[in-house]
Design brief:
The complex is a heterodimer.
Chain A (H helix, E strand, L loop, with lengths): L3 E4 L2 E4 L5 E7 L6 E7 L6 E7 L5 E2 L8 E7 L2 E6 L8 E7 L8 E2 L3 E5 L1
Parallel strand pairs in A: 2-11
Antiparallel strand pairs in A: 1-3, 3-8, 4-5, 4-9, 5-6, 7-8, 9-10, 9-11
Chain B lengths: L2 E3 L3 E5 L4 E8 L6 E6 L6 E6 L3 E5 L2 E6 L4 E6 L8 E8 L5 E3 L3 E6 L1
Parallel strand pairs in B: 2-11
Antiparallel strand pairs in B: 1-3, 3-8, 4-5, 4-9, 6-7, 7-8, 9-10, 9-11
Amino acid sequence: GAVVSQHPSRVICKSGTSVKIECRSLDFQATTMFWYRQFPKKSLMLMATSNEGSKATYEQGVEKDKFLINHASLTLSTLTVTSAHPEDSSFYICSAAPGQHGGYTFGSGTRLTVV
Amino acid sequence: GQNIDQPTEMTATEGAIVQINCTYQTSGFNGLFWYQQHAGEAPTFLSYNVLDGLEEKGRFSSFLSRSKGYSYLLLKELQMKDSASYLCHLMDSNYQLIWGAGTKLIIKP
């Protein structure tokens, strides 16, 4: 149980375009989902906390107009990287609670490459 | 303030035991988690401690002392596949997640 599906796993896009990443909780309802970014050989960086039915809470330094988060249902949260830039190339990961044994379940991640 | 410290990198030998420490400061506490992350993959859950003491799960054990703000992850009978980053994070009283920078564990034959 407690599976989070993230899609797509890899995406390559051109500079200036937008990319949407989906995060779905398959067998549980997630009122809260988290979006992370990870640069190579770095720890996870929390970008924002997504709450169902309300506006996301962004961490300091994360541009809310650039990283649009929508959590319209209890099983789906989306992250849209708008006007993508090569510097946005990164590994994006979502997670949701509850996970197994009280932890958080993570999606498999999306590797974004902006060319 | 709130922060978590863990060593940046550790090296151990296959078949041996290694202990990865995590110290923290927080204004409130709702549990401490350990995750394993292989390069290019999402983290996988290892353990959760909210009460003091040792939690054992096969080759992996996790210990917590809330009064000392200290936790460790103990890995026994190390295997080459245990080479990964190990992330320590806690949940504060507002259910916010605070992450350590991760410890890269290198296993040598």
